[in-house]
Amino acid sequence: MIEMFNIQTLNKISKYGTDNFDTAKYNIADEVQNPDAIMVRSAAMHDMEFAPNLLAIARAGAGVNNIPVDKCAEQGIVVFNTPGANANAVKELVIAGLLISSRKVPEAMTWAQTLKGNGAEVGKMVEKGKSQFAGPEIMGKTLGVIGLGAIGVLVANAAVALGMKVVGFDPYLSVKAALGLNPAVKAVADVKDVYAASDYITIHVPYNADTKSTINADTIALMKDGVRVLNFARGELVDNAAIIAALESGKVSAYVVDFPSDEVLGVKNVIAIPHLGASTPESEDNCAMMAALELIDYIENGNIKNSVNYPDAEMNAAGTKVCVMHKNIPAVISQLTTAFGSAGINIENMVSKSKKDYAYTMLDAAGDVNDEIVNKLAAVDSVIKVRVIK
Ligand code: MLT
Predict the structure, then answer these.
(1) What is residue 233's DSSP assignment?
(2) Of 193, 252, 355, 370, which is most buried by a Cβ count within 10 Å?
(3) Cα(85) to centroid of ligand 1, in Å?
(4) Ligand 1 site, CB within 6 A
(5) DSSP string, 32-52
(6) Average model confidence (pLDDT) across the chain
(7) Rg (Cα) of the chain, in Å, rounded?
C-alpha cells in the first residue's frame, strides 16, 4: 500500500507548487488534520501546536518570522524557505522605490489629482506647480546595500547598471553571492562605511533579535544629511521613532517602506507600500515551486535543502535510509552506529551535518531496520526524531 502524506496549505499556494505533488501519494488541502507537512506564505504560526507526525514546514518566501523556527527545531520539524525565488520581484520594486523617492513621484501624483476640475488651466497649473517636486537623478549617486544575499546582490547589480556607485556590506557574504556580485560593487568590512558614503541606503537582511532596529538613532547619525532610506526587508529592522524624528529634522529626506505600521503612516516623506515586494505572479510561482520541491525531496528522500533550522544534507542510499535528527553534541553518532553494529547491520554510507544546536544524520543501512533498532536509536540521549525511508 502506498503511504499517503497530508500537506496543509495555510495560505493560497500557486499551482506551480502544488502541481508537483503526485496525487497518488499526497493529499493537499487547506483543512487537514495532523498534516505531515505545511506550506505557508505569511500566515502567523507562532501560536500553533504541532502534531508529532509533522515533518516539515515550507515557507514560500524568504522571511520566516511568522514561523516558530526554534520550537520547530526542538520538535524535529524542518523549516524550509525559498531564498532567491522572489529576489527579482523585490529587486524591481526596490529600484522603483529608489526612483520614486528621488523624484517625489507619490506626492506629485497626489498633487496632480488635486488639479481636477480646472479645465483648460490644468496644463498651465502643472507647469507652474511642478518645481516643488523636483528631485535628483540616481545616476552617479551612491547606494549603500546592507545585506548581500539573493536580493541585495540583485539590487546592487541593478543599481550599477543604472549608473550608481554601490557600496555593500555583509559580514556573512556567501561564495555564491560574492561570485554573483558585479565587480563594480565596493564591498566594505565595516557598515559605518556604508552609512558614511551613501545617498540612498537599502537594507536586505533577515529580521531577528540581532538585526532588530539596525536603522536607529545612532546609525542614522552616521548617515549623510538628506539620505533616502529604503526598507523592503521587514519593518522591525528600522526603529520607527528614530526614522520619524530624522524625517522631521530633514536628516532623512525619504523613507520607503514595504511594511508600513500605524506609526509611520501619514508621516511626511514616508512612502508606504503594502508589502508588494514579492507580489508578482512570477515570484509566487517560483516560491511555491521551490517550496514544494524542497518538501518532496525531504519527505521522500530525507534530503534537506534550504532549511533555516537544520543543516543542508543530501545522500543517496542503496539500502534503507535512516534519518536521525538530534542535538549537536559529542558522542551521538558513535551511539547511533553502535545500535546498528549490535544488531548486525552494516552501514554502507553516512552523512552527518550540523547547524548551530542541531544536527542531522542520514545512514544507509544494509539490512532490515526493525522497530527494535528504531527504538534504540530514539532512546539515544539528545535524539529528537528518527525516520526510516524504505
Ligand atoms: C519574503 O519574505 O519572501 C517577502 O517579504 C515576501 C513575502 O513575505 O512573501
Answers:
(1) S
(2) 252
(3) 10
(4) 41-42, 61-63, 86, 277-278
(5) -SS-SEEEESS---TT----T
(6) 97
(7) 25
